[in-house]
Amino acid sequence: MRAIDIVVNGQLKWRAGIANASILAPYLHAWVGDESPASIGVSGMCDLEQGRIAHVRWCEGFPVAEGDTVVFRFVDSDEPTPPAEIIPTDSPAYLEEQRAFTESVRNLVPDTAPAARLNPALSFDYRLNGQPPARVSLVGGEEHILCSLLWMKQHPDQCRIFIRSFGDKAKPEHSPATEWCEAILAVNEAISVRIAA
């Protein structure tokens, strides 16, 4: 099966893959206002019997520090890491989670104050398939950097990569997103990202 290895400082943390996967979507996110410079999330979706589907989660908000390196490698493996959660979209727990989310969005009053810049020099240094490194940094009022991967069963032999920086639409200093990288990994190819802050 197709899977995505997530390696932190040389240690394999998760091999995200599951039978009947429809989507695999790990990410590395950084925000200037967080005490931890960046965090990892690993999730996806899978098909269940009788046309049902489920969300799959391996981790959410796993902290990584300044100087850490995260490698995402697209692989073929029959030994994935078991997910922490498999949540069918028709389950009572999922339906309640969606109801609570919708309610919280309806009542949300956005904070328009600029984020405290705990990591003002936040940046990602990334290397795609051993190519020379490139640096992603914040532009203008941007506060976030996101490196996301997306594998879909409709295109089983490729995994898409997106790296962008962006601000917060609710804040006056918001600036349009800056697109830094869009690429496709083939099986056994990888992207490495080193966090600087």
Give an overview of the whole structure.
The chain has 197 residues and is mainly beta. The chain has one domain. The chain is 8% helix and 50% strand. It has one helix at residues 92-106, and strands at residues 2-8, 11-16, 21-24, 27-31, 38-47, 53-64, 69-76, 85-88, 123-128, 134-137, 144-152, 159-166, 178-185, 190-196. The strands form two sheets. Strands 3, 4, 5, 6, 8, 11, 12 and 13 form an eight-stranded antiparallel beta sheet that branches. Strand 5 and strand 6 form a beta hairpin. The longest helix is centred in the middle third of the chain and has 15 residues, at 92-106.
Overall radius of gyration: 18 Å
Give the total of beta strands: 14
Low-confidence stretches: none
The assigned structural class equals: mainly beta
The mean pLDDT is 90
The helix/strand series, from N terminus to C terminus, equals EEEEEEEEHEEEEEE
Total helices: the number is: 1
Give the CA-CA distance, first to last residue: 36 Å
Classify the beta-strand content into a percent band. Answer: over 45%
Tell the overall outline.
Answer: globular
The figure for the number of domains is 1
Outline the biggest β-sheet.
8 strands, antiparallel
Helix content: under 10%
